[in-house]
UniProtKB/TrEMBL annotation:
Gene3D superfamilies hit by this protein: 3.40.630.30
UniProt cross-references to Pfam families, sorted A to Z: Acetyltransf_1
Protein name: GNAT superfamily N-acetyltransferase
GO molecular function, one term: acyltransferase activity, transferring groups other than amino-acyl groups
Domain of life: Bacteria
N-acetyltransferase domain boundaries: 3-161
Amino acid sequence: MKIALKLLQIDEVASVTGIELDEHDEDLAGGSMATIYRRLRRRPEPSLCHPFLVTVDCATVGFLMLREGSALPYWANPGSISLHNFRISRKAQGRGFGTAALALAAVWIAVHRPGSSALTLSVNEENSSALRLYRRCGFQSSGCSFAGRLGAEIVLSCGVSELLKKYVADP
């Protein structure tokens, strides 16, 4: 199986299909793809937002967005890259695609943003499956938490080099 990230143009986000989540999981991942697209179009710095499809053998199984610079949320450390709207389709979950997508995001950061040393994210404290994935991949609590749209959010961070060491044979 070939797992890849495909960088999208902002206008392509609106047409993303094939990612099936139940309503609650979709809410935890930031809403529908149409909602994500609308928010992205309203951002003052869309060029600092990088939307990606997660594909397996050219079929869409997921989505994630990386943000940098002035597009970082207030809870992210300057110089880091933040992860948003991460989702793997319900039928594709539990097969290692989420882990692979995070490793591929680290590769993209290392190649395209070598000055960024960490990948940072926030996750709802009730999202136990996402927390397990992130912790298994080496993400650790930054000690920061805040009240999010759907409840308490925990901020996690992992060094890009740590993700590369753990999941890429020859970084």
